[in-house]
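Narrative of accomplishments. A recurring question from our advisory board has been how the design workflow behaves on a single, concrete structure rather than in aggregate. To address it, we present the structure tokens for one chain from the evaluation set, followed by the sequence designed for it. No filtering or post-editing was applied between the two.
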């Protein structure tokens, strides 16, 4: 069975794993980070070829590294589970106060980033009507766009 969302414990574990891999603390995981951590911490030798395809699918914004958000999306999103029902369920989960809009604060809480500037830039990217919030339609468009990229 495929996961449609992460529970809090899974998210915390994945955030911790991200921090372990991101040794240089630049908020991006690069192939070199993964190779180094696998070798140094787990004693496993891997090559760039082992992770090249995954990195291409996970690095949604093509900025040269996998962000925490991309890492978490990769942990729970598969093309076959991006359905209207699942997107609605995730939207309702993120929309903590149930006002049919996802605020910057709700988005921050969901993705676990306490950087107002980074979260605001993510919000602006998907906020088509410039309301400062993501409504359901904007959220759906974002999820379907991410699905096509991944």
């Amino acid at each position: 069975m495929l996961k449609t969302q992460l529970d809090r414990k899974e998210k915390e574990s994945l955030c911790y794993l991200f921090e372990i891999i991101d040794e240089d603390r630049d908020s991006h995981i690069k192939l070199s980070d993964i190779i180094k951590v696998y070798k140094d911490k787990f004693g496993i030798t891997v090559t760039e070829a082992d992770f090249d395809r995954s990195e291409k699918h996970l690095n949604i914004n093509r900025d040269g590294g996998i962000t925490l958000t991309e890492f978490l999306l990769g942990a729970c999103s598969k093309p076959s589970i991006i359905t209207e029902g699942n997107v609605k369920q995730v939207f309702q989960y993120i929309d903590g106060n149930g006002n049919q809009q996802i605020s910057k604060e709700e988005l921050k809480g969901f993705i676990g980033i306490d950087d107002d500037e980074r979260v605001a830039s993510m919000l602006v990217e998907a906020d088509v009507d410039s309301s400062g919030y993501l409504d359901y339609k904007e959220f759906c468009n974002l999820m379907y766009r991410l699905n096509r990229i991944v």
